[in-house]
TrEMBL record:
Its EC number is 3.5.1.98. Keywords: Chromatin regulator, Chromosome, Cytoplasm, Hydrolase, Metal-binding, Nucleus, Repressor, Transcription, Transcription regulation. This is Histone deacetylase 8. Belongs to the histone deacetylase family. HD type 1 subfamily. InterPro entries: HDAC_I/II, HDACs, His_deacetylse_dom, His_deacetylse_dom_sf, Ureohydrolase_dom_sf.
Length: 360
């Protein structure tokens, strides 16, 4: 199994917990194939992809060369063994979800996808490939308007940058935004460029946000976006680093908060793909994505962790519970309201333009 050190055995733990709750019997399981070279080139540059291919079977991957630094393959994205195989496997899982939607499925889930930081010619933020962008390109062969929602604690910069000029893909990112927090982009004032102006939405927040602040913030903004844009299909990136206790996060949110947000998306009854993303507290990530799986499948599950191969890791309480920290929320209602008002004002302007030009 191909692994990335930043997430360790996360995929195995997530899959095992979902399986232990017997949720797979309510799903159609698809065995993904690795994507093709052409799939990668639908977004990534030929030079970057060629670099990944060339290093795939390289034994000496410790030396950081100028070329590797140019392509972002150092520091937070060090060269890894079988890097091309890893990239094509990741993209293959998301394209399998996309193909399911194209074949008529109402919902597809891929907790192994959601690598939103990778740029066209550069790896970034543990992301060696941008499966989301490639997946959206394929969705656009059938659907005119795609709505991308990003719940990861980090700004979805790679996806936003890819579609910042597009009026057919609306990107909406909810993320922590403050000095020193990666990637440092995603200010509320960033709204797209040229023909895509207004089709980029950034909803930043400060550290230690709690559910009572975050949930209405998400619901109000996402509703305004949905009602104006009326997408044909949605992709939701559900990065688990948004959950309290993630060492690369910073919120005070628990799964129940984010479940309320996803429930709203489900209420739209629009074809939707749910992807993973960040999540560096492996146990909390497994708990969160398992609860999301149950919600999406409309199944109620026990709070007690069933017996599974990683059962000892879920101690000491062996439940799905994740607890908030006793800290002060760094956000105020006034600050979030100002962001919300700016976004809704921009959406109102955008809606007027859509009507004026007969698009909507």
């Amino acid at each position: 199994m191909l692994k990335l050190s930043a997430i360790g055995n996360r995929s195995a733990v997530v899959d095992e917990l979902v399986k232990s709750y017997e949720l797979l019997q309510f799903c159609k399981i698809i065995s993904p194939k690795r994507c093709t070279l052409e799939d990668l080139l639908s977004f990534h540059s030929a030079d970057y992809v060629e670099c990944l291919k060339r290093y795939n079977d390289e034994d000496d991957i410790e030396e950081v060369t100028d070329e590797l630094q140019e392509f972002g393959l150092a520091y937070d994205c060090p060269m890894i063994e079988k890097v091309y195989d890893f990239a094509t496997s990741i993209v293959g899982t998301t394209l399998a979800a996309v193909d399911a939607i194209l074949a008529g499925a109402a919902i597809a889930i891929n907790w192994h996808g959601g690598w939103h930081h990778a740029q066209r010619d550069k790896a970034a933020g543990f992301c060696y490939v941008n499966d989301i962008v490639i997946g959206i390109h394929r969705l656009r062969t059938r659907f005119q308007k795609v709505l991308y929602l990003d719940l990861d604690v980090h700004h979805g910069d790679g996806v936003e940058d890819a579609f910042s000029f597009s009026k057919y893909v609306m990107t909406v990112s909810f993320h922590q935004h403050e000095p020193g927090h990666f990637p440092g982009t995603g200010a509320v004032s960033s709204i797209g460029i040229g023909p895509g102006k207004g089709y980029t939405v950034n909803a930043p927040y400060s550290r230690d946000i709690i559910g009572d602040m975050f949930v209405p913030y998400f619901q109000n903004i996402s509703s305004a976006v949905y009602n104006a844009f009326r997408p044909d299909v949605c992709i939701v990136q559900c990065g688990a680093d948004v959950i309290v206790g993630d060492h690369l996060g910073g919120t005070n949110l628990i799964p129940e908060d984010c479940l309320k947000c996803v429930q709203q998306v489900l209420s739209w009854n629009t074809p939707t793909i749910f992807l993973g993303g960040g999540g560096y507290n492996v146990i909390n990530t497994a708990k969160y994505w398992t609860q999301l799986t149950a919600l999406i499948l409309q199944k109620t599950i026990s709070r007690d962790i069933p017996d599974n191969a990683f059962f000892p890791d879920f101690g000491p309480d062996f439940t799905l519970d994740i607890y908030r920290r006793n800290v002060k929320d760094g956000n105020t209602k006034d600050n979030l309201f100002r962001n919300e008002a700016f976004i809704e004002g921009n959406i109102h302007t955008l809606k007027g333009r859509m009507i004026l030009f007969g698009y909507g």
